[in-house]
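dumping the sequnces here before i forget
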Amino acid sequence: MKAVLAYSGGLDTSICVKLLQEKYDCDVITVIVDVGIPKEELVEAEKKARKLGVLKHYTIDAKEEFVTEYIHKAIKANATYEGYPLSTALARPLTAMKVITIAKKEGADALSHGATGKGNDQFRFESMFRSIAPEMEIIAPIRELNLTRKESISYAKEHGIPIPVDLEKPFSIDENLWGRSIEGGILEDPWTEPPEEIFQWTKITKQKPETVMIEFEKGIPIAVNGRKMKPVELVIEMNKVAGSYGVGRVDIVEDRILGIKARENYECPGAVSLITAHKHLEQLVLTRRQLRFKEIVDSTWGELVYKGLWTEPLRKDLDSFIDSTQERVSGEVKLKFSQKNCSVVGRQSRYALYSKEMASFDEKASDLVEGMLRFHSLQSELSKKAG
Amino acid sequence: MKAVLAYSGGLDTSICVKLLQEKYDCDVITVIVDVGIPKEELVEAEKKARKLGVLKHYTIDAKEEFVTEYIHKAIKANATYEGYPLSTALARPLTAMKVITIAKKEGADALSHGATGKGNDQFRFESMFRSIAPEMEIIAPIRELNLTRKESISYAKEHGIPIPVDLEKPFSIDENLWGRSIEGGILEDPWTEPPEEIFQWTKITKQKPETVMIEFEKGIPIAVNGRKMKPVELVIEMNKVAGSYGVGRVDIVEDRILGIKARENYECPGAVSLITAHKHLEQLVLTRRQLRFKEIVDSTWGELVYKGLWTEPLRKDLDSFIDSTQERVSGEVKLKFSQKNCSVVGRQSRYALYSKEMASFDEKASDLVEGMLRFHSLQSELSKKAG
Amino acid sequence: MKAVLAYSGGLDTSICVKLLQEKYDCDVITVIVDVGIPKEELVEAEKKARKLGVLKHYTIDAKEEFVTEYIHKAIKANATYEGYPLSTALARPLTAMKVITIAKKEGADALSHGATGKGNDQFRFESMFRSIAPEMEIIAPIRELNLTRKESISYAKEHGIPIPVDLEKPFSIDENLWGRSIEGGILEDPWTEPPEEIFQWTKITKQKPETVMIEFEKGIPIAVNGRKMKPVELVIEMNKVAGSYGVGRVDIVEDRILGIKARENYECPGAVSLITAHKHLEQLVLTRRQLRFKEIVDSTWGELVYKGLWTEPLRKDLDSFIDSTQERVSGEVKLKFSQKNCSVVGRQSRYALYSKEMASFDEKASDLVEGMLRFHSLQSELSKKAG
Amino acid sequence: MKAVLAYSGGLDTSICVKLLQEKYDCDVITVIVDVGIPKEELVEAEKKARKLGVLKHYTIDAKEEFVTEYIHKAIKANATYEGYPLSTALARPLTAMKVITIAKKEGADALSHGATGKGNDQFRFESMFRSIAPEMEIIAPIRELNLTRKESISYAKEHGIPIPVDLEKPFSIDENLWGRSIEGGILEDPWTEPPEEIFQWTKITKQKPETVMIEFEKGIPIAVNGRKMKPVELVIEMNKVAGSYGVGRVDIVEDRILGIKARENYECPGAVSLITAHKHLEQLVLTRRQLRFKEIVDSTWGELVYKGLWTEPLRKDLDSFIDSTQERVSGEVKLKFSQKNCSVVGRQSRYALYSKEMASFDEKASDLVEGMLRFHSLQSELSKKAG
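..and the predicted 3d for all of it:
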């Protein structure tokens, strides 16, 4: 049997290569999908894969696609789930798609991933696998053999799989262009303050406040401080800028797909600052009815993507709604960064529904306002009268 | 005719006294409702009212009632409207109620307020007046005579009404225990950064980070750092603590009741920090279905109160829902304050739905998870199959 | 001044012609927009208009546009408002658009309608007028002069305006392709049963039950009993078929835009039967997440259109959502008609998410179902455990 | 091991007795919970259970509790799920509770039910079992042994379990006071019209139209045609009346909990007519904001109960909301029954928000309506202007 594995170079997926070979009797093709991985890690991963005796190894640069087809949708949807800006959740369907594509090209029989039976990623991988390639088998060695972290480490040692040095720090890390997640160990206790050492992207290196202007075109950020940037470049830039002020930390208790509550820590400087800017621009150009309805749409979008339901038809329907609203979400937003803080201090748009004349207290009000007053709370009044 | 006026001691309501006397031929009773007004201002206001020749003047301490009957409901509802924690909006119904009570006691014929025809407060006052005392006349001199700020100042000068020194700064201020709003002048332009000088409550006076523990009982904050506090005292304390870190500034473009978009600035240090803490505690003890539904309830509650629809029966229905959810919202939250930042770094509760064993990656997963996977995205799969 | 009036040939708009001429000093151009008006009435209306001395008269056939651009959207949205399938509400924006078009062509200064100050139509006309032609004046004689029905009749008699014979029956009727509304007189009392005589479209003329098959393509009905029909023809056919069984009566207490509750009676045989069929087809092809979210979308769509907010950007956004869902709403529905009853007794589609194998109790269940059970109510269980 | 089985006297649960004894080595206590079962069936079931050698048998009359604690809540929530008024779904938690109560009293080790692995009832039983008695084992023989209907029949024959005569008709029936469900066989095909023979409760026996007046007190029906009735009696009466006109048939494609779409047929004459009446009364006494929000609450309530999540805390929260709204849902509704049709033709209440003076076209409108018009579509207008 030939299996294509979503590979990361980390401990779990390295073990999977061996398990697939030994316990499942498979030839293994590893695919590492680059959605924002340092170059040296990609090289390292390939080396590691080859050492593990894979049939083939693919490194796929999906950064551009990740930003334009996933992150941009997420910005337009102000996408969060219970406060989490969806970094890992957002990348999984793309990774799964690439694995499927290779599997079809290579005539493989099975699709494989290294997720455990406790988390969310198993759902995100498998719902894509089942929807897009229902004819293929799914093999999830870690989950199926129900390996704990400790058991994984033993297995690795036994099979000469190199163990990352930072395994001493018992944190499980995942990162891509849209954010970095840190979980495990003492972080699991929701009462314990996360130690400073877990943070990599949001160390404060700048003290002096700075104003950064973001330009949006139809809901998509296209320029920073007047400089047009390519999609990937802009996200990287905002991660750097916001990160240097310590902006973008998220510390929540989150409802996993299985219904388990878990404490999670994230660093999402680019996501947090871009979504903040985007929301404030929407407040300027969308009607209040649009804003209020979009709240529900956005929240539902975030939930679907968190749950790995990228192929749920409702997701596409919500995107149609969102794209329709974004026609006018063009303009500029001024973000003021200071230590651990990112605030909007200005916004403008050629589509602003703002009218200085109407809003200003220096101008006359309409004589007609009395009519609004007459009817504003009519039913409340009738209701009080009815006793 | 005898009119009872909601009095603040400020320019607009002082003019109203004169207008009621001269243009509406009324005997005027002024009522200043203390929902968090510095004592010297109360004294000053009374003096001013008497100088204007009012029939009677009442100073009513409503701080306790404001906190227990309004602010506590707002905390339980995580109440905001487009990002604004409802400070003024929340106090208006209470002020209106007190005015009505005095009017009934004094056998008055009319209820009066000093709001203009552009803003929200006219709606908030009048919907209470109409619902609770439909038999009384409503007189709104500033709105009815459609006075601009400039005209008000002229009128005041002509009639010897003392003009506050800070009128040079053309900002319109309103404050109560739950927050402070600043609007007008250059702030009306949504693109202009608000100058530091407009802020009073959120000047940074502390640099060293500090962790503050808030204890909640059924959704209501009852202790700070282990010290039980009376309702009013606790809110004042949190305004002070959060304010000293510069936390609680809100800068938004907001949809006024009339549909006009306006740029607004607020300082709500206590509100922002207490609601943040409250939300995180809810994430620990409520089911995800409760959390998700409560989002819609909270958002609707905030909209009703913003619009002055305190007497709308739906408000009471939503409170019933909310109170039911808050039965278990008891526990502690650790807030970490640093410059301009307030983050939750820990939360615990005897009602936590958190289970270490279930969440931890050090423990075995359930063998049964495969069943969940089988059905999780079933309809997405069928949908893809259907073409 | 030159005014273009939305004319119906009825009492109110005939009076408006005279009022526009005499009280507003206007040259009047009348426009009757045919959204399903019997031919003889169109002829009659034109004659009447000319007799009243109008400058010009236009008869515009908008039936096709009404069905394809309005009714089809309404079917896709399963559009109702508190049970009312929106007949009049749906046609007003189209009528208003046609009036505006003529006004621009004729270089008119004002737009006019004959709606009173109590109902909904003033909002529907004027929100279109204000949005699309803000430069033109709006004249609403009946509302502005605040004429009651009695006063209107007197005025008509004084000015030799012919009064319809059925004025003795004090019912106010409005009809178009999508339905017929009857209000006024004894019908205003919500406790009184409507007399049979008010119904025209839903007199029972058939006794024998009959099965009618409707074919939909992307949410739009395109054939009846296998016979492809043009849009207008199909709606007329379904009005006839359903009407002959007495199907389509709606008797509700409805919240008018002003907040007034009013008892309303409608006959909408085509609308009721087509929307019923459409909903059942959706249940076969949409996922439950789509169905549930679309409930909220549909309800919001119905409310916007009822309130005359056709130009509200949210309406267009909702249409984008809806159109995305309708991609698969193709298939056939069997409607069984009997006396006063229309039931769906069969539905099929090439996009059905139905799987006989999965649904049937004659087939084995999945062994994996236990996994679903394990997690289905997990949080309820934890919640009970927490006490 | 001692197991308590939710027993019905039907084929599946009779087989379960034997399976529990033979395959699971249990002493079996059978409990039949009467939520509306003909007396002779109760007697028959007991006889059958004893013949199967049970340790003990309980017959529990839960009709009163079913109506007051479940059906009344359902009426107040206008409870349906995709058109289905929840009959079986509504009774399952009560049945499960009674089984648990007996199990605790008898010191049993296990709880058991006869539901298959395809349907909804396994979820409804087990979520109650897990939430209320997590210490007990759950045994679901039919599901665990994955028996098809055919296999069940063979097993019954082998073990001398009497097979009901109507097994030839391959329909699976469930009935209680709130409705009757029929599924299986040719009914599984969503395109096939259900044969008349499957219906028992909705055979047309009356031809002459009849008006029936229902009186509600706080959302609960308390009298029919002026005659006060006990809760159970009233439901039985309405089943009879509505059933005799053929009212209450529901034919839908429904999304089962597992995500499987299934065609289902129901007869719910009492439920359909009482919920119809209740909704119309709500339209008279609730504000439109209440009505609109309650739509979402009701829909969510129906979904929770359908899914067997009776112990989900959100259900209780929704009930608090609903009870608050029902304070004023008191009054009378006239239902007009004719062949297959039940329509509301009148409604009245001392809490009606209806005002004849405001609604009537014979009365003057308010001069103030122009003010409403000015602001009604303000944002749509600004939006058009913005281009």
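Chain C touches chain D through 101 residues (CB under 8 Å).
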